[in-house]
Known about the structure:
The chain has 164 residues and is mostly helical. It is 55% helix and 6% strand. Helix 1 (11-19) runs antiparallel to helix 2.
Amino acid sequence: MDTDMAFGLAPYEIALLAGGERAAVTVAVVELHLRGTVETGPPGTLCTTGPEPDGLAPFVGAVLDVLREPLTVRELVRDADMRLAVALARLPLADAGLLRYPRLGPNRTARRRVAFLRERYPLPTTPHGLTDTGTLLAVALHGEQALRLLLPRFAVRAGLVAGA
Length: 164
């Protein structure tokens, strides 16, 4: 899976179009986890484990900034700074004509692009051999199914999916 062919959208932007703000935050958390910066804390919480890595997108950096103290995913999504980061992440999507006004939800064009990407990048059958970029794209496009397949322990411990 290669996001260069994904209409020039970052994985968190694809997730925002495909599943909303919680999906975008989830993809950012997964990216930080794959970079070794976020781990699970007390039951159902996330916390930082190291310094900020280089090259983070502003949205992903905002998630890391909010996670300076252990939070659940629900608390993370509801945080005022996170809501601002989501609103700012929507601006380029609106400028690209992918959101409808006034609620800034995905329009028909965005839904078609997401459907095309889901068809082009189906859910992997195994996590073996998948790059971090491929993992992020799979989580952005396929949500909980991808989390359960690719990062099952982390996803359950972090509260990203319901326990099995």
